[in-house]
Write the structure tokens for this entry.
Amino acid sequence: GENVEQHPSTLSVQEGDSAVIKCTYSDSASNYFPWYKQELGKRPQLIIDIRSNVGEKKDQRIAVTLNKTAKHFSLHITETQPEDSAVYFCAALTSGTYKYIFGTGTRLKVLA
Amino acid sequence: DAGVIQSPRHEVTEMGQEVTLRCKPISGHNSLFWYRQTMMRGLELLIYFNNNVPIDDSGMPEDRFSAKMPNASFSTLKIQPSEPRDSAVYFCASSLVLYRAPYEQYFGPGTRLTVT
């Protein structure tokens, strides 16, 4: 069945450094790839997304890249700040099924 | 817009009792999703609806779980009878999904269920 693999499971960076989280999806028909940030005790919040007709999207310090051939997509956070510390989830939506497949999450710690 | 609304926010119940979780999706959204989140299993999709019709309930753990969506603005997830292993945070999410044109999915605040 459909699957999304997410790496790494934990990531620690120094404040000001960059962080990269990678996901691989299995269904080549997937056409929408959102990223969510979940702070402790809170709901997952959509932070950025990308559709399959675009290779890269940027919003201030965060960016997402998509490689459809390799079925990879990545989240890039630059100039990390302590408030970026959270669990980040990637997801892939399979066209025509309305079903979002989530990765297992990455716990990001930004050390001050 | 108030976003996705869930109630109750917290529920503590005894094993064997019936539990009903409620969700109001964002107005205009046509898809509704129920997820369960635990430390051990992460974020699991239980069931999702499109235009009030259940599309895929393969994630529902067992017959003790049931979900309904009687209209576009309301859904329930029921557990009967509840067991301690059902303790988790249950999220409802909604989205506008058109064929080949998906839009953002938004989560509700969640219901933290504790079964003792």
